[in-house]
## 1
Amino acid sequence: MAVSSQNEPYIKEPMEPMTESEKSIARNIFVSGTPCLKCHITGEPAHDAKAIAPNFLLAGQRLKPDWVFRWLLDPSQIAPGTAMPTGLFKKDGERWIVNLPNPPADVSNYHNDHARLLVRYMFLMTPDEQRRLLSASPAPATAPAAPQPQRVGRNGVRAPASQRSDRVGHHPARRPG
């Protein structure tokens, strides 16, 4: 509190509600190039087993909007060595826009600050919206299954099944005595 010169108790600033159009644009920013859900917890156990970053649903309870805005612009400036990438947004006149080579049309046509929109989106996110965001995200890439090696003899020819050591034997299993 002393470092931030923050009075106790902290009184949250009111957050402007989002239109459905703004939610859609923010969702598109999340899923069209920014890797947010790669690391952030979502409440889905399969996903969260590998997640290392906090759940967006906690942002409104734990963080201040201006701090999150600064964090989005340059996370390594606030926490050197963080896994969160820098450069997700670039300055365009007086606003910050998502730094994507080919943003979706609705994102390109949104003429307000993209980073501030994302802050509002995170602070106003509901569990239903988070599930919608997760379902709109591209599925993580999975590596193709590696072919199983085949046992071959010294001459490079696969041995007949009757001679292979990987065959299950036909004798009864031994029972511990």
Note: Residues 20-31 form the longest helix (12 residues).
## 2
Amino acid sequence: MATRKVTLSLDVAAWSFAEQAAARAGMSPSAWISRAARREAVRTGCSPVPDPADFAIADEAERAAAEETMRAQG
């Protein structure tokens, strides 16, 4: 999974909880916070924003399939 480096501010207690939970899970605090944020977002009904590059790949595949159909029809 791709990552993005960001700067966040957490209150002291939240950081302490994250460090402890990450250690118990055998993860880095960054990985634990990422997983926790993803779970909470999904729980509250959010979904990932699609990557525009995915649309370009799908469009290219659709174009190639249409060209192949046209060639097959003569």
Note: The mean pLDDT is 88.
## 3
Amino acid sequence: MGDDELAELRRKRMAQMQQHSADQQMMQEELERQKQADAQLHHLLLQILEPEARERLNAIRLTRPEFARAVEQQLVLLAQSGRLKQKITDAQLKALLLQIQPSKREFNIRRKG
């Protein structure tokens, strides 16, 4: 292997390592942005939910995380639009959950005999 080939291999390896390092840094920055967004969401939810409602939302998050995320987004929209005059109680959250929850389909199977 000549010096030129060895230098080319080293250059390629160095470029790969730099790209890998840049990718890791971008992933770290994205993770940090996500953590910051989650902290802001948590802080806002503390301001707009009564403790019982917050507990209910946390319980939902354990079983249905996507649905809980949808509810959180709806609550944030309500808060940002200025439509909330007071903290949301557990009863109000239950009513909101019923509105947001997708309706269940019922199937009737009839057998002809």
Note: The helical segments are 3-48, 51-63, 65-80, 90-100.
